[in-house]
């Protein structure tokens, strides 16, 4: 059966099948090739997209903006001081207003409940640009980058080191389980992911997929195809920066950890922005292993695919 993502939300990757994820990655590749060939698109012509941002962003904002314009759409940025979301007006009412004016809505903020309520009431597709729980558009870009380097996802060993319960780690775990990857989290026990979440995701693993959580960073990365990390204190957790620095220092991605993989062709991934000297050293960040700027570019191509698949002119 052909994949049809028409009018679909992207709240987390929990609601997408492996076939649907592969479809989005294939579409991303096609749109990437089209852009590089200088072919102007019209798949979002006459489409208006609301971009709601409670949290600031470089990659997410720019990716949605450029992606929409590339295909003839109009993106409208709505910062936290531009609308009354959750203040003078509740989320349901804001959703119903925006849904009558826009063809799709992106939300980047704190609460997962807000993006779910937007999806419940808007009547148009809603895309999660990041919440405290999940970051699905980032993981699509990560998977496109991995596939570009290895030609596949199934069977790849992807290791995340750092804060094992943050939104990126959660989303990578969900996606890896669906795509038949071997996913490992290397994290201090204090920052292990929620056991119930791990157990549920493990039950939904596709054939061959495995999920492992360990507090031994060198054991975690052994045999890795890709090592992934993120900032040690996420947005809203700045007060915990010193505590996290002490706790996560053994999980820094440095030359020693790269060598511990035993794989000379391992790649390094980071969703950015990076605090060099904390979660990753400068020499790794600038090394031949690094693919973080490929990921950053791929945010645009995968986000474009998400919008085109759900509201595009076909």
Task: Walk me through this protein's architecture.
By secondary structure, the chain is of the alpha/beta class. The radius of gyration is 19 Å and the shape is globular. The chain contains twelve helices and nine strands. Helix 1 packs across helix 5 (136-150) and helix 2 crosses helix 12. The mean pLDDT is 96. The strands form two sheets. It has a five-stranded parallel beta sheet with strand order 7-6-5-8-9. The protein has a four-stranded parallel beta sheet with strand order 2-1-3-4, sandwiched between helices. Helices cover 42% and strands 14% of the residues.
What is the distance, rounded to the nearest whole angstrom, between the alpha carbons of the first and last residues?
Answer: 18 Å
**Global mean pLDDT:** 96
Number of helices: 12
Low-confidence stretches: none
Total count of strands: 9
Query: In what order do the strands lie side by side in the largest sheet?
Result: 7-6-5-8-9
Element-by-element helix/strand order? HEHEHEHEHEHEHEHEHHEHH
Report the β-strand fraction as a percent range: 5-15%
What is the radius of gyration computed over CA atoms, rounded to a whole number of angstroms?
Answer: 19 Å
Largest sheet properties: 5 strands, parallel
Class from secondary-structure proportions: alpha/beta
Please bin the fraction of helical residues. Answer: 40-55%
Key attributes of the depicted protein:
314 residues, four-stranded parallel beta sheet, five-stranded parallel beta sheet, 9 strands, 14% strand, alpha/beta, globular
């Amino acid at each position: 059966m052909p994949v049809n993502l028409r009018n679909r939300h992207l709240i987390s990757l929990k609601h997408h099948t492996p076939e649907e994820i592969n479809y989005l990655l294939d579409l991303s590749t096609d749109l990437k090739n089209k852009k590089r060939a200088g072919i102007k698109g019209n798949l979002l012509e006459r489409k208006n997209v609301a971009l709601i941002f409670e949290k600031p962003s470089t990659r997410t904002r720019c990716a949605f903006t450029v992606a929409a314009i590339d295909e003839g759409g109009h993106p409208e940025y709505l910062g936290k001081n531009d609308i009354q979301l959750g203040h003078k007006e509740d989320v349901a009412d804001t959703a119903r207003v925006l849904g009558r004016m826009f063809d799709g809505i992106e939300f980047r903020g704190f609460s997962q409940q807000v993006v779910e309520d937007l999806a419940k009431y808007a009547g148009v597709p809603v895309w999660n640009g990041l919440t405290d729980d999940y970051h699905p558009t980032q993981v699509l870009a990560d998977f496109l980058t991995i596939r570009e380097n290895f030609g596949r996802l199934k069977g790849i060993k992807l290791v995340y080191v750092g804060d094992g319960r943050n939104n990126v780690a959660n989303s990578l775990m969900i996606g890896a389980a669906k795509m038949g990857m071997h996913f490992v989290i290397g994290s201090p026990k204090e920052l292990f992911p929620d056991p119930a979440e791990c157990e549920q995701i493990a039950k939904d693993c596709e054939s061959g997929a495995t999920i492992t959580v360990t507090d031994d960073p060198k054991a975690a990365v052994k045999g890795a195809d890709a090592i992934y990390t993120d900032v040690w204190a996420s947005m809203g957790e700045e007060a915990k920066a010193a505590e996290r620095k002490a706790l996560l220092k053994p999980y820094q991605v440095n030359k020693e950890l790269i060598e511990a993989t035993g794989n000379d062709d391992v790649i390094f991934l980071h969703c950015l922005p990076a605090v060099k000297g904390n979660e990753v050293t400068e020499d790794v960040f600038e090394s031949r292993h690094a693919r973080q700027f490929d990921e950053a570019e791929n945010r645009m191509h995968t986000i474009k695919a998400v919008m085109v698949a759900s509201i595009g002119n076909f």
